[in-house]
Write a structure and sequence with these properties.
A: alpha/beta, about 20% strand, B: alpha/beta, Hypothetical Protein Ychn, Chain: A, five-stranded parallel sheet
Chain lengths: ~130, ~120
């Protein structure tokens, strides 16, 4: 089955992000397909390379990165949400004259059209909200 | 994205308590721009978005209420409010935009049934 997963919660602020991560891992482990991960609203913080987890806690962004690169998943952070929350790739940092960029490799900044496409193409859409 | 599917958006958040009300409107407008059939229901605290006379100061957030009458212009053709929620939150139904129609639980249930996807904000 083909899933799209929408993640609306930041790591550690609520159980949404970690639940979504565990669900995504289970989808892949179960032999199903992930059409797209869409990180929306506060969920864009899951793509931060600057977040540092305490040593005895799960590093949620790092685990997303591992899952995405291992399975070559399509992972999109909503552009409007990302910019507002200070999640920038090199291109956006240059465009808006910011001094650094912090989007993990494997994540792409794109628009809500990608969310609509994800809704259309998946057999099931699962949303994790706070 | 050629295939047309129907999306039901349940907007259940108060207008300025979080970004959710705004996000619901953004998704509705985007989906409509991509020629999806979009229906929207204001429910629970989401009916507060329909409260008339939202006074947004110049330095405050953009008015959510002002965007709602414009939905039809952007091809979000069917916009509803949940009647029980409106009663609970004492919304003046007579002052609502004409383009927003009241529905009861049974009608809401039908909308959910016929939607390909449902998103809750």
């Amino acid at each position: 089955m083909k899933f799209s997963i929408i993640i609306n919660g930041a790591p550690w602020s609520s159980p949404a992000a970690f639940s979504a991560l565990k669900f995504a891992e289970a989808v892949v482990d179960g032999g199903h397909e992930i059409y797209r991960l869409f990180f929306f609203q506060d969920g864009v913080h899951n793509g931060s390379a600057f977040a540092v987890a305490p040593q005895d806690e799960v590093d949620i962004p790092k685990r997303w990165h591992a899952l995405i690169s291992e399975h070559d998943l399509d992972a999109v952070v909503c552009a409007a949400s990302a910019l507002k929350h200070g999640l920038l790739d090199a291109g956006e940092a240059a465009r808006y004259d910011r001094t650094g960029h912090n989007l993990l490799p494997g994540f792409d900044i794109s628009g809500l059209g990608q969310l609509v496409d994800a809704l259309n193409q998946a057999d099931r859409v699962v949303t994790f909200v706070t | 994205m050629s295939d047309t599917r129907s999306l039901l958006i349940l907007s259940s958040s108060a207008p300025y308590a979080s970004q959710s009300a705004r996000a619901a409107l953004d998704v509705a407008l985007t989906a409509a721009a991509f020629e999806q059939v979009v229906r929207m229901v204001f429910i629970d605290a989401g009916v507060l978005q329909l409260q008339p006379g939202q006074d947004n100061r110049k330095d405050g957030p953009k008015s959510v209420g002002k965007m709602i009458p414009a939905l039809a212009l952007y091809e979000v053709q069917e916009v509803f409010f949940h009647e029980d929620s409106a009663r609970r939150f004492s919304i003046d139904v007579s002052a609502m935009p004409d383009s927003v129609t009241g529905i009861n639980d049974a009608a809401l249930s039908e909308l959910v049934q016929k939607a390909d996807q449902v998103m809750v904000f």
